[in-house]
Amino acid sequence: MFLLFLAGMLFGLPKITVIAPIFAGSNPEIQALNDEAKRVFNNYRNLMETELDFLPSTVHNLARAFANTSVFSSDGASQRGYEGFKAFSLTFGFMGALQFPSNFPILNEIKNVITSDEGEMGFDFIKDDLDIGLGFDVQALNAQLGINTSKFLLEGLYLGFKFSMYDTNRIKIMPLPDVSFKTMSFGINTSYQLIRQKRSLLGLLVWRGINLGTGFIWQNTSLELTPALPIDQDLKNVTIPITGITGINEISMPLKDVFKMGFKTTTYIIPVEAMTSMRLLGFLNLALGAGVDVAFGSSNIIANGSLNVNVDDIRGLPKDGSVRMDRLPVMEFSMEGNSAPNLFNLKAIGAVGFNLGPFIIDIPFTYYFLENGYSLGFTLGLTL
Hints:
elongated; 17 strands; disordered N terminus; two-stranded antiparallel sheet; 10-stranded antiparallel beta barrel
């Protein structure tokens, strides 16, 4: 049951559909054969349900973690901490995010088993301990155009227009078989320089003042895996024993699995931030700030699979045609969990970078207090 075991661990209690095949033909024992097929496939369904009984009935926390990390990764190609440019700034970058639970109950269970002479670990604990707040998101390719509106709109106001798109089916930076990963986001950011920047020590120290920022970002991420997973021997073949039909003892049906799992996340984010930064020695840039991301949306974790029978692979049917396959069996399972992100996501913001003339190299990072969340990025850019 390895295939269903892995899928169930990730996605919760499955919905299982098993429908027995129907045989037809001139043989007088057709009805008895169909009754036996129903019995065999009912047992097959019971086997699946028994094997998966230990699985959690919900993955709310897991789905929420993926929704949260979509929020955490939304500031790719960040320009925060570099306000003060005269005309515009163009940046490109990467941003990844992780929500890491402060406690792994499963690891504690394993530890207790190891340290106890009488300990024995079964699957009972999984129902309560597997639905943990662990998630990730990656915005691989981001671009942002920042504009200083001082000359035509408002002194000290900066506008940023952000766009991100990545698709492993089109851009194969890291070719991975059986993996489809897609991201897209766009948004607008505004930053107002509440306190203007100040220079001292002949420009070797520049304090960029205090900036207040907000905006709106729409973001979508999807991951689909189509692994060729092995299944145990008890699920690789269904055998129907035959009595009363001359010349055959059983009908054998080899199975082939088709399996897809992944998640789809869509979030709407309103960041509210206060930032300050300074440039030391003419090139080293340090930024610090705090804020909150107000977020809406959802994340859906999905797994769908089937065990299929090819009519040409069926063995044991009489060669005289007195028994034929009238309807192939149906064996499907699906699992799903969904959740919205946290509405308010308090954060501490930092960045370390280099401002070499008009060029920017920056490493932004953020810590989210409520869910032990982290984001880390890398940005290259130009300011004029």
